[in-house]
Amino acid sequence: MNRFIAIVVLLAVAISITAAGVAWLVTTYHSMMWRPELLKVMEVDLYYNTTDSSWWLRVEALNEGEADAEVYKVEVHGVEVLPLNPPKVVKAGSRGEIYVKLSRDYTPETTYTIRLYLKSGTVYPILERVVRASA
């Protein structure tokens, strides 16, 4: 009787380990293949618009992911943080431009760090760019 219980326990453990291994392989494979929004910043401009006498930020980005990228906040590090309402969207698989009117004055030929915050909460180091302001 003890031998029978040992075999049943051993089989149960083997089946559990196999099921866990299969689940791990499937989720790992899926996470490697699934790409949420994946922005590739192509160009960033911080410029002064003479028609409305204000500073503007233009970000051109390519979304190489499978989900839309929703930018809900823009930060010029150490200067200002601008919430975007509604969020600016770069559609999956497309190239888009985001224009943001800035509220502060900037010094021409000064280096600023720009950060874009996405609704997904994921941090993308490529979104941190240094730009030169020009009048």
Would you kindly provide a written description of the structure presented here, covering whatever features stand out?
It contains 1 helix and 7 strands, in the order αβββββββ. With 135 residues, it is α+β, with helices and mostly antiparallel strands. The protein has 2 domains: 34 residues; 96 residues, Immunoglobulin-like, CATH 2.60.40. The chain has a 7-stranded mixed beta sheet with strand order 4-3-6-7-1-2-5, with no helix packed on it. The protein is rod-shaped and about 90 Å long. The mean pLDDT is 83.
Quick summary:
With about 140 residues, the protein is an alpha+beta fold. Helix content is about 25%, strand content about 45%.
Whole-number mean pLDDT: 83
Tally of domains: 2
| Helix count, DSSP H or I runs of 4 or more residues | 1
CATH classification, class level of the largest domain: Mainly Beta
Rg over C-alpha atoms, rounded to the nearest angstrom: 24 Å
Compile the SSE list and pairings.
Elements: H1 2-33, E1 39-49, E2 54-63, E3 69-76, E4 80-90, E5 95-101, E6 111-118, E7 129-134
Parallel strand pairs: 1-7
Antiparallel strand pairs: 1-2, 2-5, 3-4, 3-6, 6-7
